[in-house]
Design goal:
Belongs to the histone deacetylase family. The protein is 40% helix and 16% strand. With 307 residues, the protein is α/β, with parallel strands linked by helices. The protein starts with a strand and ends with a helix. The structure holds zinc ion.
Length: 307
């Protein structure tokens, strides 16, 4: 079992101003905790490469990509939306974030690794085809999915998203693509207030009220995700792994802990073994309490590495 940990030092150059929760220190906390642990030695550490422009233009309109590139300032910050800012390094980091996921996808499909975790920023699951929002510019996981589906033998994939926020961008991308199952648990009502009630057979939305406990989260995942996975029979599983549903997180009001993240990781690993030849690409989304984030990612990686 080889689990890759894909990241890049240049992710730290993107920052959105003092006191912004989506800060470079998030990745520092993850990598430092991992490097100091026994698990860190068992992972294959890799540096991300930029996404191909051709694939990027397949997922996002070229006008949108050019608009973001032109918005990037030479110094200071420029705002794509009130929460989502660019500094002089943002577009480079965004291309490397998407590139980590496409690189992981190719390596998993090529059999070089069994699964991968992409420790990236900026995150991606709020980025719609033509809208940057919620700290996201390019939809990293959608780029990995398109890369996977470009392989003739991959016809069905699943995206599982346990971030505290609904994956509006991912739903925007795949609402009319029945070959892509999207399952999302999320606090509701809550940001981003988009697509949470869409009715499509391949979109499984599981809203959770503020204060939802780990055991209620587990019951919801078993009730909603497992039948959908059995029906869809995905050949590869992508995970939008946000850890902001942790009870210590300053943005969310759900009550998950590391044990719940280990539980859901084990469920994903078992589903991947059952349907998808063990193929998993997991991608960091949110998670804003640095200690809870570092511990939760470690737990998630333990599950992936034991799969
Ligand atoms: Zn989130």
């Amino acid at each position: 079992m080889t689990t890759a940990f894909i990241t890049h030092g240049d992710y730290l150059l993107h920052e959105m101003g003092a006191d912004h929760p989506e800060c470079p220190e998030r990745l520092g906390a993850i990598t430092q905790y991992l490097a100091s642990s026994e698990l860190g030695n068992r992972l294959k550490w890799l540096a991300a490469q930029p996404v191909s422009e051709k694939l990027l233009e397949k997922v996002h309109p070229v006008e949108y990509i050019r608009w973001l590139d032109s918005l990037q300032p030479e110094k200071g910050l420029a705002y794509a939306d009130p929460d989502t800012a660019l500094n002089p390094h943002t577009m480079h980091a965004a291309r490397l974030a998407a590139g980590a996921v496409t690189m992981a996808t190719e390596m998993v499909l090529g059999g070089e690794i069994n699964n991968a975790f992409c420790a990236v920023r900026p995150p991606g699951h709020h980025a719609e085809r033509s809208i940057a929002m919620g700290f996201c510019f390019f939809n990293n996981i959608a780029l990995g999915v398109e890369q996977a589906l470009s392989h003739s033998d991959i016809e069905r994939v699943a995206i599982l998203d346990f971030d505290v926020h609904h994956c509006n961008g991912t739903v925007d991308m795949f609402q009319n693509r029945p070959e892509v199952l999207v399952c999302s648990t999320f606090q509701h009502p809550f940001f981003p207030h988009r697509y949470y009630d869409i009715q499509r057979p391949n979109i499984i939305n599981s809203p959770l009220p503020a204060g939802t406990t780990g055991s209620e989260f587990r019951r919801t995942v078993e009730r909603d995700w497992l039948p959908a996975l059995h029906y869809h029979q995905p050949q590869m599983i992508f995970v939008s792994a946000g850890f902001d549903a942790h009870k210590a997180d300053p943005l969310g009001q759900l009550l998950l802990d590391e044990g719940d993240y280990r539980w859901v990781t084990n469920l994903i690993v078992e589903a991947a073994a059952c349907f998808a030849g063990g193929r998993i690409v997991s991608v960091l989304e949110g998670g804003y309490d640095l200690e809870a984030l570092a511990h939760s990612v470690h737990t998630h990686l333990e599950g992936l590495a034991s799969g």
